[in-house]
Amino acid sequence: MKRFASGIAAACLAAFCAGVAAPDALAADYPARPVQIIVPYNAGGGTDLAARVLAQTMEKYLGGTVIVRNQPGGGGSIGTSATAHAKPDGYTLGTGSQGPLVMLPQYGGIDYTINDFDFLALMGRNLMVLAAGKDAPYKNAQEFLAYAKAHPGEVTVGNSGAGGANHVATEGLGMAGDLKLKSMPFGGAVAAITATLGGHIQSVLAHPPEVATHIKAGTLVPILVLEDDRIADFPDTPTAKELGIDFTWAAWKGIVAPKGLPADVRKKLGDALDKTFHDPDFLQKMKEMGEDIDYRPGDAYKNLAMKDSTVAEKVIRAIGMYNMNAKK
Predict the structure, then answer these.
(1) Which of 13, 90, 178, 252 has a CA-to-CA distance to 209 between 20 and 30 Å?
(2) What strand order describes the sheet that includes 251-258?
(3) Measuring CA to CA, how many Å separate 4 from each of 9, 15, 106?
(4) 45: Cβ–Cβ under 8 A, 6 or more apart, which residues?
(5) pTM for this structure?
(6) In this structure, are residues 38 and 95 in contact, taking their beta carbons and an 8 Å threshold?
(7) pLDDT of 210-229, one tens digit each?
(8) Which residues is 36 bridged to in the sheet?
(9) 73 φ/ψ sector (left φ>0, alpha ψ -120 to 50, else beta)
């Protein structure tokens, strides 16, 4: 009887040890099948094209096939949700964009939070510049600040859509600088820029490539940028911080995974992504596509996302849009 009991105990111990060892064994063989990257937007868009170039380059450093799967809808929430709820085994990754990760959860009606992801690598950031029309009552940062303080609620700033990154940026800038700005959402950046050019509003908050041609033509004037330091596109344009306004903001995207990746798998993915973002051919292709690479490894990417999530919640609560999509 004792031998029988000992045999059961030994068998259980062996099974337990095998169960403990299994993840390491699987990690050693990773990837044993194709790895998919979910893009929560339609094929052919900027995020999709960037993800495909990344996947192609990443294959040679990961040692396996990497494919892109589009799962659009819900402003990016459907595909991002699919990533969050996938098995955390390294075979399903996602493009983690600022909107779906840090802003949509604040509006409610989403079945995931920022805490449901492992952050692997930041791919790039789309910077923000405030540009004024030629008839605006301010032509530089100092005049803008003085006018905004002297005329609360009269400074009109266009953005690409209600609740979007540019809208949050405008409201955040105003809150940080104790300025009452009148944010004007439009149906896209082009519409907001057109309204500024036509003199219907005074200024617009947009990405540098969206306004560069107009600034070069002299029909728009760059007022300030929302970065820690001045940017190469507009080296003579000060940052908000130079005006004493402690606020930075940019839209971004990167690569995330469902929370709980095995450590070995996460390391393999992190190493492959690090090599990808230093690959000359990859960098050249991204440059040709107009993508600004700002590679940051997992921890730095997570820190940025968490910081922006805190800012977004504060702003979205202040403008009365917090949890507006939650089921009543």
Answers:
(1) 178
(2) 66-70, 35-39, 92-97, 251-258, 117-126, 293-297
(3) 9, 17, 58
(4) none
(5) 0.87
(6) yes
(7) 999 999 999 999 999 999 99
(8) 67, 92
(9) left
Q: What residues does each domain of the chain span? A: 31-125+251-318, 129-243
Question: 129-243: which CATH topology?
Answer: D-Maltodextrin-Binding Protein; domain 2 (3.40.190)
pLDDT in tens, 237-271: 999 999 999 999 999 999 999 999 999 999 999 99
Contacts of residue 55, Cβ cutoff 8 Å, sequence gap at least 6: 37, 66, 67, 68
Angle between helices 46-62 and 263-276 (to 10 degrees): 110
Residues 135 and 203: their CA atoms lie apart, in Å, by 10
pLDDT band at 291 (very low <50, low <70, confident <90, very high): confident
Residue 258 three-state SS? strand
Domain spanning 31-125+251-318, CATH architecture: 3-Layer(aba) Sandwich (3.40)
Residue 10: predicted pLDDT: 44
